[in-house]
Amino acid sequence: MxxxxxxxxxxxxxxxxxxxxxxxxxxxxxxxxxxxxxxPNPNPPLSALTGALATLVTTEAATKTRAAGTVxxxxxxxxxxxxxxxxxxxxxxxxADANPEQAAAIITSAGMAVRKTxxxxxxxxxxxxxxxxxxxxxxxxxxxxxASYEWEWSVDGxxxxxxxxxxxxxxTEIAGxxxxxxxxxxxxxxxxxxxxxxxxxxxxxxx
Length: 207
Prior knowledge:
Elements: E1 9-12, H1 19-33, H2 46-62, H3 70-98, H4 103-109, E2 113-116, E3 125-129, E4 136-140, E5 148-154, E6 162-167, E7 171-174, E8 182-191, E9 194-195, E10 202-205
Antiparallel strand pairs: 1-2, 3-4, 4-7, 5-6, 5-8, 8-9, 8-10
Helix pairs in contact: 1-2, 2-3, 3-4
């Protein structure tokens, strides 16, 4: 049985530190957002981005005079623009998340790059707290279409194991566990080829 996978599309925004390059990137993003049907209402507004960019251009030019305070003013303007660009990235990400089928097109239309995460694969064995105190949920990766599963738990670091009821599904719930104790859990699958090896034990502080 195939594992559960999900490809997530994220915005990749690499902003250069040198001001001249940053100005060029900001200009490209503003141009891409202007009249963009995917992003009709950019956040922050284009007027704010344009104003922050204009301030950086002006203060960067002023640093050429070497007058006192010009570098400090330029640095403040750069920080302001960087903050706005990161906020714009977050806004574009939000729009992309709401439209997963068009996510990549939305991101690139904003003058930004796409970064795809590696496919997420379901963990082979998970142990989680249950809704009731002393209860734990165990979920394993299915071993085959037809399989049964045996479950065990230990309170002495794996020296002795207590069996739980076997199941035909790759999940179960164990109740009545000692609260505030560190308990180890493991499972093994039984298929038509026989019993598999016991899984690596996972420890959990039972609540």
